[in-house]
Design goal:
By secondary structure, the chain is an alpha+beta fold. The chain has one domain: Hypothetical Protein Ychn, Chain: A (3-Layer(aba) Sandwich). It is built from three helices and two strands. A two-stranded parallel ribbon has the order 1-2. Helix 2 links the parallel strand 1 and strand 2.
């Protein structure tokens, strides 16, 4: 995750039950998914390791490049054109 998406790994988000993204990400992590976020993006938004949901970690852009290289699928969600 990078840019504003890093907010999704904040364990202190107070959103409705069916849209509680941190609990959804925790479920994915428990199932074996690797969930990483850009450390610089997180720190810029005031998010530090003690705010992370369990099973996630902050990394650098080099780690993102390694993950993209190793995986068979990479999903990106964006709006606009």
């Amino acid at each position: 995750m990078y840019l504003d998406a890093v907010i999704a790994i904040n364990k202190n988000i107070k959103s409705p039950g069916e849209r509680h993204i941190p609990s959804m990400l925790k479920e994915l992590s428990d199932a074996g998914a690797k969930i990483v976020a850009c450390g610089d993006c997180a720190h810029f938004r005031g998010l530090f390791r003690d705010n992370l949901i369990e099973g996630t970690k902050l990394t650098g852009i080099a780690t993102l490049a390694e993950i993209i290289d190793e995986c068979d699928r990479f999903i990106t969600l964006r709006t606009g054109e």
